[in-house]
Amino acid sequence: MKEANLLVRRIKNGTVIDHIDGGKGLHVLHALDIDGKDGNVIMIALNVLSQKFEKKDIIKVENKFLKEDDTNKLAVIVPKATVNIIKNFNVVEKRCLSLPDQIIRIFSCGNPNCITNSNENIETVMNVVDKKMLQCKYCKRILDVNKLTCI
């Protein structure tokens, strides 16, 4: 039996997020607030076989260029991912991910008594402890990045 090749069309302008840990692509879209409502084409490939990793996800978003802050936020969710900025069908910038000092408004605090989970409308602020741990700025709870919930 002949194996079928995956064909995903190239994008003229936009962002390609590659080498996302298999199964985390939808989490990345949610964290970056990419929902398709702006009318831009979004291509998502989940659990694709990879030579470098066992399985990976790939996201291509036409006419959207991630800001540096967005790229750094991905370092918490998918540290092995790469972000490529595409212009006129060419990669014009390849970004390596690096952890920011703080992550604002992306994850909710797991402490139900935290002020960010009240009716006060206070934005969550997570201080980055290391690659695997964040700490809520307000209640000081330590959170495992693998168990975080996006807002």
Number of domains: 2
- The run of helices and strands is EHEEHEEEEEEEE
Unreliable segments (pLDDT under 50, ≥5 consecutive)? none
- Category from helices, strands and their pairing: mainly beta
The overall pLDDT average reads 87
Choose one word for the global shape.
globular
Q: Radius of gyration, Cα only, in angstroms?
A: 17 Å
Main sheet overview:
5 strands, antiparallel
Name given to the CATH homologous superfamily of the largest domain: Aspartate carbamoyltransferase regulatory subunit, N-terminal domain
Number of helices: 2
Order of strands across the widest beta sheet? 2-3-1-4-5
- What is the CATH architecture annotation of the largest domain? 2-Layer Sandwich
According to DSSP, the number of beta strands is 11
Instruction: Report the sheet-strand fraction.
Output: 35-45%
CATH class of the largest domain: Alpha Beta
Features:
151 residues; mainly beta; SH3 type barrels; four-stranded antiparallel sheet; 2 helices; 11 strands; globular
What's the short version?
The protein is 11% helix and 37% strand.
Describe this structure in words.
The protein is mainly β. Strand 9 (133-136) and strand 10 form a beta hairpin. The strands form three sheets. A five-stranded antiparallel beta sheet has the order 2-3-1-4-5, with helices on one face. The protein is built from two helices and eleven strands. It folds into two domains: 3-95, Aspartate carbamoyltransferase regulatory subunit, N-terminal domain (Alpha-Beta Plaits, 2-Layer Sandwich); 102-147, SH3 type barrels (Roll). The N and C termini lie far apart (45 Å). The chain has helices at 25-31, 68-77, and strands at residues 14-21, 42-49, 55-62, 82-87, 90-95, 102-104, 107-108, 125-130, 133-136, 142-144, 149-150.
